[in-house]
């Protein structure tokens, strides 16, 4: 199936920011969207708002640190709609810090959400895509993985782990599956709220105020990749503010 209309698209981290904006954007273009995240109230609000605009959306509470939750999100889409065209592995956190600070719990959290969460998405959807003979993974990375700067080592490492996994997946996927990575720069979202170091959080919020682009810019790029013909695999997309060094 070419285009966006009629596709069933599951999105993790869809309760705010890039995931929510992408769900709205794709639903406006006729996709059926299945939203997953932990905050049920925010998911419900997004689903109601999409429905009020004539879009089709459902949601399921999903913690990507739990393999069974991610599996349930995929099963939920399959039960309701009989297929899954796209899984957007978007959930992510950024409790950044200098390595000297030894905030090992934060390192583990980033690995659990940003890396293992994506692997659980692959584990849930890959067998479905194989059975169907079609399917598209879209994994959210970061420009933090392209230009590595102090405080971002573990966050960048988590995103670059997914970069490597995505490239391996692309090579193993064969001719009928598609794999896209998108690396956003500063985007105006709630991501700073996941920062546990208050001075870095304040700096992150300042950076966002100074230069961040709206989440809709990332949603448009994701929609571009999804909307291409089946035999066109948009591999890597980088979208950053012009003002970002
Ligand atoms: P937000 O904080 O607005 O969104 C993050 C989303 O991830 C929320 O929906 C949150 O939902 C969800 N999430 C966090 N932890 C979990 C979990 N354990 N299980 C399920 N969902 C979870 O930030 P963004 O929209 O910016 O982030 C989206 C992605 O974009 C992330 O992968 C981030 O790393 C990436 N990114 C963002 C950039 C930016 O400047 N904003 C730049 C580059 C990349 P909930 O809390 O309800 O579970």
Describe this entry's structure for a reader.
The protein has one domain: Rossmann fold, CATH 3.40.50. 48% of the residues lie in helices and 18% in strands. The chain contains 7 helices and 9 strands; from the N terminus they run βαβαβαβαβαββαβαβ. The termini are far apart. The site of NADPH dihydro-nicotinamide-adenine-dinucleotide phosphate has 31 residues, from helix 1.
CATH topology: Rossmann fold
Contiguous helical run count: 7
* Helix amount: 40-55%
Gross CATH architecture: 3-Layer(aba) Sandwich
Shape: globular
With strands numbered from the N-terminus, the spatial order across the biggest sheet is: 3-2-1-4-5-6-9
Provide the domain count.
1
List its traits.
245 residues; alpha/beta; Rossmann fold; seven-stranded parallel beta sheet; two-stranded parallel ribbon; 48% helix; binds NADPH dihydro-nicotinamide-adenine-dinucleotide phosphate
Question: How would you summarize the topology of this molecule?
Answer:
Blueprint: E1 8-12, H1 17-28, E2 32-37, H2 40-52, E3 56-61, H3 67-81, E4 86-89, H4 104-132, E5 135-140, H5 153-173, E6 177-184, E7 187-188, H6 198-211, E8 213-214, H7 215-227, E9 236-239
Parallel strand pairs: 1-2, 1-4, 2-3, 4-5, 5-6, 6-9, 7-8
Helix pairs in contact: 1-7, 3-4, 4-5
The structure holds NADPH dihydro-nicotinamide-adenine-dinucleotide phosphate.
NADPH dihydro-nicotinamide-adenine-dinucleotide phosphate binds near residues 37, 184, 186 and 191.
């Amino acid at each position: 199936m070419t285009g966006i209309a009629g596709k069933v698209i599951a999105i993790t981290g869809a309760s705010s920011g890039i995931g929510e904006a992408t769900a709205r954007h794709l639903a406006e273009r006729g996709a059926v969207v299945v939203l997953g995240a932990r905050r049920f109230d925010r998911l419900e609000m997004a689903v109601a708002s999409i429905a009020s605009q004539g879009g089709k959306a459902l949601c399921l509470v999903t913690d990507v640190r739990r393999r069974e939750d991610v599996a349930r999100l995929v099963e939920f889409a399959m039960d309701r709609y009989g297929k899954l065209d796209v899984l957007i592995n978007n959930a992510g956190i950024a409790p950044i810090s200098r390595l000297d600070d030894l905030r090992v719990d934060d390192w583990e959290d980033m690995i659990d959400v940003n890396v293992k969460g994506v692997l659980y998405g692959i584990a849930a959807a890959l067998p479905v895509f194989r059975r169907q003979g079609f399917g598209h993974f879209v994994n959210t990375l970061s420009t933090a993985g392209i230009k590595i700067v102090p405080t971002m080592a573990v966050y960048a490492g988590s995103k670059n782990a997914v970069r490597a996994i995505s490239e391996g997946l692309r090579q193993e996927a064969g001719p009928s599956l598609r794999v896209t990575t998108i690396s956003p720069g500063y985007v105006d979202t709630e991501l700073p709220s996941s920062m546990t170091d208050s001075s870095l959080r304040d700096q992150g919020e300042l950076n966002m105020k100074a230069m961040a682009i709206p989440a809709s810019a990332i949603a448009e790029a994701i929609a571009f990749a999804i909307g291409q013909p089946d035999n066109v695999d948009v591999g890597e997309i980088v979208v950053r503010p012009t003002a970002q060094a």
